[in-house]
Amino acid sequence: MHEDFNFNFKTLPTFLRTGSAFKKHRTARDTFNTLTPRDTLQARHHAMRQLTTEDLKTLEVDLKNYFPQSLQVYGCIFQLNRTGQRADPVSVLVDQWPEFRVLLIKPEYREKGDLFKDLTVFSKSDDCLRELLAHSDVIDWKMFICLAAELHHVKMMEVMAINRGVPMKKEAVCYMLVLRDPSNLLHADSSSLKLSSLNESHLELVNRSWKFGCEDSKLMIKNMILNFPSCCVLDSDNQPVAWILTYASCAMGMLYTLPEHRGKGYAKALVTIMSKRLHSQGYPVYCFIEEENHLSYSLFTSLGFMKDPDYRAAWFVFNGF
């Protein structure tokens, strides 16, 4: 079996929203979606507010009310509240506070490799998001941008790109698979496995094996290895033969097994071990799987990960390389 769920640029705890809660969120969103003329004026002319360290603690709690739509930004804030800006410097911006309607997590662009970091958006109001994308200067639309958002924003992104005169393509569409209760995972017999975390010496190997790996992706992967949880299986020479990493959003990713070591159950063991580890430390336990990646989808769902049938995550690339 090809044990690999590489996905573009890229398990929920027990408080994952149920179907009824999802509908409640949609109702709340519909209420927000009615903009007054004053709202429109504010969206067009008011700068977004950058949240403070204390604000981020409040935000982390509030975002739990909007799962699964907010899970990706929740993961970013969760990680940020624990590792600080040393791990992955970003600006967390809202249109207003505390009753925000649009949230942007904007990475700092200090060198070319930073372009691999996602600009992540969560919105309670499509109208507010549309106005901000169309008229705010918070995003520099002249540079390369990889924007992570809900798939249902695709038409909005297409219209905005046309109006701003920037090329855009939908780079990836993914299921968000969430493990509601990691305690139900079957025991993974890892007694015969030599396990470790990845370190910086493994950067080239991981980058070379990643579907989107290139010279410019090294900085992002280095940051993941140094600052976020990872796990790998080592061979007799202490070299990784299978591994899994964690993105800045807390999503597990870059699961990969070298071809000559496939069929040994390494991927299943790594997902199980990493899921239990993340859950024990309070992390949300989830991942993104591209729609066409049936093998990885089967692997994760066999371990109890579940998708929300009404939700898809998408990555939109503007001004591609």
UniProtKB/TrEMBL annotation:
InterPro entries: Acyl_CoA_acyltransferase (IPR016181), GCN5-like_dom (IPR013653), Glycine_N-acyltransferase (IPR010313), Glycine_N-acyltransferase_N (IPR015938), GNAT_dom (IPR000182). GO terms for cellular component: mitochondrion. It comes from the Eukaryota. GO terms for molecular function: glycine N-acyltransferase activity. The keyword Transport does not apply. Residues 193-321 form the N-acetyltransferase domain. Its EC number is 2.3.1.-. It holds the Pfam family Gly_acyl_tr_N. Keywords: Acyltransferase, Transferase. The keyword Acyltransferase applies. Belongs to the glycine N-acyltransferase family. This is Glycine N-acyltransferase-like protein.
